[in-house]
Amino acid sequence: MLFQTKNQEETPSRRVHLEGADLLYYPNFLSEDEADLHFTNLQTELNWKSFPIKMFGKMVEQPRLVAWHGLPEVAIKYSGVKIEPSPFTHTLLLIKQKIEAELGLKFNGVLCNLYRNEKDSMGWHADDEKYLGQNPVIPSLSLGAVRTFQLKSKTTASLKANLLLEHGSLLIMQGETQANFKHQLPKTSKPCSPRINLTFRQIIPHLV
Ligand SMILES: [Mn+2]
């Protein structure tokens, strides 16, 4: 088709229909081989850390490992704690460049989450921090075990979606998605192997 770019033919995407959200899903953004290789390398390359959080007045470990990588100026506040970025690694740069080429956008940081098994999770939240700017474009790359990603409207209970995020897939959250919706990655009862999720961000340093 004339209006289709070469890129879109190579990495087909589909819209996720959810009123008030703007979601684009590429099931095979990476080939199986690329995804396998990146998954293995990221497990050892990244600066994975366990972050404590306060729950019901007690300090507990968050149910996942986290790494923040980016340009030197993009320290962020994560769960109320300021974290300085580790540099982009070789694998992160390869993935970042591929996403930037597809979207025609630049990103200066990437939040990495490692869900070690079915018990690891992330609770309901929106990526709506001021330092991400209004209506941020957030590409979310998934590697490893398939997990269910859930979205729910901040105001309308009937507006919700469950998405299975596959190995090598890319979900783009953009437009008013963060303004109108929260998202989470619930734990599951079925045993599962590790999953790595990379969410790329364009941080506005003076707003952190
Ligand atoms: Mn998020």
Structural summary, described in words:
- There is one protein chain.
- It is globular and about 45 Å long.
- It has 208 residues and is an alpha+beta fold.
- The longest helix is centred in the N-terminal third of the chain and has 14 residues, at 32-45.
- The strands form four sheets. It has a seven-stranded antiparallel β-sheet with strand order 1-2-13-10-15-8-5.
- The N and C termini lie far apart (44 Å).
- Strand 3 (52-55) and strand 4 form a beta hairpin.
- The chain has four helices and 15 strands.
- Mean pLDDT is 93; it is low at 1-6.
- The chain has a single domain, classed as Alpha-ketoglutarate-dependent dioxygenase AlkB-like (Jelly Rolls, Sandwich), CATH 2.60.120.590.
- It binds manganese (II) ion.
Structural class: alpha+beta
Shape: globular
Terminus-to-terminus distance:
44 Å
The tally of domains stands at: 1
